[in-house]
Write a structure and sequence with these properties.
Rossmann fold; single chain; alpha/beta; five-stranded parallel sheet; globular; about 120 residues; 5 strands
Length: about 120
Amino acid sequence: MTDSLKKLFILVVEDDVLQRMAASDMFQAAGYLVHEASSVEDALLLLLAHPDIALVFTDLNLSGVVSGLSLALDMAEHLPQTALIMVSGQTCPENLPSGARFHPKPYDPIAVLQQASVMTAARYS
């Protein structure tokens, strides 16, 4: 990963604390700076407070009132410049926003990191 990519922020949205920690560790080990959220509501607050977030990595099925898919649809409308990777133990939703990517759980960390690198590089090229 190049030095310019190492300064990029990733937002990890996952309600399961162990999975959130594992995903955050994965991105940090790859050189990204990481924010964490356990709900869509928290994620939206972080996205508003940190417009420099380059990519959101979110679970599709989050506990609470709002789902990860709702977050994806809101992002497509209001933050189309922010890359999005969704993961789930379920199948890929048919209405996944254009440009978003889906990885089934358990996901391959190398594939996710490669996808994140491509998506964030495209944003800053």
